[in-house]
Amino acid sequence: MSQELNIGIIGDYDKSKPSHQATNRALNHAAKRLGVVTNITWLPTPSFLIDASEERIRKHDGFLISPGSPYRSMAGAIRGIRSVREANLPLIGT
């Protein structure tokens, strides 16, 4: 059985943006190479204005700040980043 990693991507997924498509492919490619399974969840920036709770954040093992801004809610993106950092979880941005 493979280890599973739950990756949250803070950003507003848009299937027409090549950078968003490439992000999913890159994470899945790396996971396959490492022998793990990734569960990728895109977390829309406005959603962090409604719920930035630690309970929501802790459902993920690590986070990526999505490429391809502008975001629908810059305030939501900042709040999401802050919540992840305060929960002391891995976070990387592009």
Describe, in short, the structure shown.
By secondary structure, the protein is α/β, with parallel strands linked by helices. The protein has a single domain, classed as Rossmann fold (3-Layer(aba) Sandwich), CATH 3.40.50. It is 40% helix and 24% strand.
What does this structure look like?
The protein is of the alpha/beta class and 94 residues long. It has a single domain (3-93), classed as Class I glutamine amidotransferase (GATase) domain (Rossmann fold). It has 4 helices and 4 strands; from the N terminus they run E-H-E-H-H-E-H-E. Strands 2-1-3-4 form a 4-stranded parallel beta sheet. The termini are far apart. The model has no long low-confidence stretch (mean pLDDT 91).
